[in-house]
Structures are given as structure tokens and as C-alpha cells.
Specification:
alpha/beta; single chain; two-stranded antiparallel sheet; about 400 residues; ten-stranded mixed β-sheet
Length: about 400
């Protein structure tokens, strides 16, 4: 293959400011720096975890920049290294692999270049072998292209870059958060095996969840009917007692008939007020029933395809915002994880309450994850958490 094709016309562009909203891994404060977008980081580690008994290869897609005299590598995408072959026990990049990579670049990352590659070493840790040095020199001719080694078993990773003609381990790098439609489109059409398996499991669970919803709704209706009947019994008993008191008063003192008539009017007004409160309580209980059902069993496909799921989430939002007292406990930003996987019963409100003890962070979570409808999240979705 022509080396210029591998190099893809790499060049430097001036960078006016560094990416914002970043998380530092290791010590990466000075000198030449590496920035990897969060979608890319998550996808590469999912891909690496698919095979824990053999190596895998992926290509890092992005651009080089200069900033105040330093070289900045910004990784905006990743492509699986298909068609790699084992040679003497080592996984090697082939000509067919390169053609496949540049087909994907033309489709998803037209304005970007190959800025390096990832090599997984399950169980071997971060070990720069003589094979990796030789293979890097053979396939990546630009001295700015980097090597990213990942051990999915030990959950270790590190970048290597050229310094004074030698591949040297970098002390750290940055993960930054930004909208990345190119990588998002690639991920949708090139899912990892784990993601495909999760979709199959969700389809198989649909019938079970529908049955559970039906039984849960029936149980909630039974509880509500019992509570309502008990309240009506108490109300009727109170009215009977009022009537007895009024009758005794009339028999004992006929002269106070006028006063009793006034008392009767007052009692009637109180009865009307009690009746109104019972009706309001009935409406409130109905909302709570739907709210609990919607919060406990959200749509696993992440779609509001049923009225029960949608109304449950909306009711939960209203109920939480009206009766949840504010919490004033101080949150340590270091205790907040970078992301959270949505579980059954979660909403953006409950996630915000769980990690920030407030609902005020819901708009920030929406903005960070590009969620236009805060009620539309699904089980298994990766939610990135902003720092307060």
C-alpha cells in the first residue's frame, strides 16, 4: 500500500483553545497532549472487552493541532481493525485492513485522518513489546501517530508516543465531552457484540414486562379500592354520629330549634367540604398509582410506545417537584462518577437526586447527553454526569 495513503495527508492545524469539559487521566498537564472524546473512549473499551482471550486492533481517527508550541492530538473517532491476521502468534494489520479503515473514514469521518491505533493485551498489562514497536514503525509513518494499549482484564490503559525517536509511555491523557455525530453514527451501524446481545435480551423481555405491568396495575387498583371504601365508611359513620347528636338535641330542648337549624347548615357545609376532599384524594391516589407503575417499569426500548409509561414518567415529575423537600447536603464533586447506566425505575429526576441531592442538575444532564426530552431515557443507556 502507498505510504501516503496510510498517512492520509496528516498535517497540523492551529488551535485557538483546548477542549472544555474534560476529565484528566493520570498526569497530562504539560507538553504534547492527547484528548479522546467520551463516545470514542466508551466504544473502544466495550470493543476491547469482547475478547478476553485474544488481541484486538482498532484505529484512532482524529486530527493534530498546535497550541502554544505544543502538539495536541484530538481523537474524535474509532474504527474496528477488521481483517487483521495472526502471524507467529501476533495480530497484524493487513493491506485489506487498511482499505477497510479508509472505506469507513470516507463514510463516517471524511475530514479526519488516522492518528494512531489501539492494541489489546488481555492479562498482559501495559507492555510495549518489540513486536508492537516494529509493527508501529511499519504501519504508522508519521512521528505524531500514537499507540494506545488496553488490557481489558486488568482494566489498564496507556498511550505511547514518539519522543526523540523512541516510543515512550505518556503519563496521562484527557477525556473530553462533546457532541460527536460522526462517532455516534458509526456506533449505531457498527455495534459491538455486547450491544447486539443486549438488544436481543430486551426483545425477549418484552412479553414478561407486559405481563408484569398488567398484574401490577391490577394490584394497585385493588389497594386503591380498599382505601377508598375505608374512607367512605369513616365518612358515613361521622355523618350518622352528627345526625344522632342533632336528634338528641332536638328532643331535649325544642326551644333551641333555631340554633340547631344553624348548626345543621354548618354541618352541611362541613359535609360538602369533606366530600370535596374525598374527591381530591381519589384523584391524587389515581395519579400516585400511575406514577408508581410508570416509575417502576419504564419502557425497556427507550420509546414511549405506551400511555402507561409516558404518563407514569410525567406524573412522577410532577409529584417529585411538588412534594420533595429540598436537600441541602453538600456534594463532593470527586464522589460523583463520570457516567451512570440507567436501571429499571430510573428517570433524570431520580438520577439527579441520587448524585446531586437536587433536581437543579436535570437540565445540565440533558445538555451533556444531548437529551431533548427528559422523560425519554431507556434501561441500559449510558448517562454522563456533569460536575456540579
Amino acid at each position: 500500500m502507498n505510504e501516503n495513503y496510510k498517512n492520509n495527508k496528516l498535517y497540523l492545524e492551529g488551535l485557538e483553545s483546548l477542549p472544555k469539559n474534560v476529565r484528566q487521566i493520570g498526569d497530562a498537564r504539560e507538553g504534547n497532549r492527547i484528548y479522546m472524546e467520551d463516545y470514542v473512549y466508551s466504544y473502544l473499551h466495550q470493543f476491547a472487552a469482547e475478547e478476553t482471550s485474544s488481541e484486538q486492533i482498532a484505529f484512532l481517527i482524529g486530527k493534530y493541532y498546535t497550541y502554544k508550541g505544543d502538539v495536541i492530538v484530538i481523537i474524535d473517532g474509532a474504527i474496528q481493525g477488521d481483517y487483521a491476521e495472526k502471524v507467529n502468534g501476533d495480530l497484524c494489520i493487513t493491506e485489506r485492513t487498511w482499505y477497510h479503515v479508509y472505506e469507513k473514514i470516507r463514510k463516517y469521518f471524511e475530514d479526519y485522518s488516522v492518528v494512531g491505533w489501539m492494541y489489546t493485551q488481555p492479562g498482559y498489562g501495559i507492555l510495549l513489546t518489540s513486536f508492537l514497536k516494529e509493527h508501529h514503525n511499519k504501519n504508522f509513518i508519521d512521528d505524531k501517530q500514537v499507540l494506545y494499549i488496553v488490557d481489558p482484564l486488568e482494566k489498564e490503559d496507556s498511550f505511547f508516543a514518539y519522543e526523540n525517536g523512541e516510543l515512550v509511555e505518556k503519563k496521562g491523557y484527557y477525556i473530553y465531552y462533546d457532541k460527536n455525530p460522526s462517532m455516534h453514527n458509526y456506533m449505531l451501524e457498527n455495534k459491538t457484540k455486547k450491544e447486539e446481545k443486549n438488544e436481543q435480551d430486551i426483545d425477549e423481555d418484552n412479553d414478561i414486562i407486559k405481563t408484569f405491568r398488567k398484574k401490577e396495575q391490577q394490584r394497585k387498583d385493588d389497594i386503591y379500592q380498599k382505601k377508598f371504601i375505608n374512607m367512605l365508611s369513616i365518612l358515613c359513620g361521622g355523618l350518622v354520629l352528627i345526625c344522632l347528636v342533632m336528634g338528641i338535641g332536638l328532643l331535649n330542648n325544642i326551644e333551641k330549634l333555631n340554633d340547631l337549624q344553624a348548626a345543621m347548615k354548618t354541618m352541611t357545609e362541613k359535609y360538602n367540604n369533606i366530600k370535596k376532599e374525598v374527591i381530591d384524594l381519589e384523584n391524587e391516589n389515581s395519579i400516585m398509582v400511575n406514577n408508581e407503575l410508570g416509575a417502576q417499569i419504564p419502557d425497556v426500548n427507550g420509546n414511549n410506545d405506551g400511555q402507561t409509561s409516558k404518563s407514569g414518567l410525567e406524573s412522577e415529575e410532577k409529584h417529585t417537584e411538588t412534594i420533595t423537600p429540598p436537600k441541602t447536603q453538600t456534594i463532593n464533586p470527586e464522589d460523583i462518577p463520570t457516567s451512570y447506566t440507567v436501571r429499571i425505575g430510573d428517570s433524570l429526576n431520580t438520577i439527579s437526586e441520587k448524585f446531586y441531592n437536587t433536581l437543579d442538575m436535570v437540565p445540565n444532564i440533558q445538555k451533556l447527553n444531548d437529551i431533548s426530552n427528559k422523560h425519554k431515557i431507556y434501561v441500559g443507556q449510558e448517562i454522563k454526569l456533569p460536575k456540579p
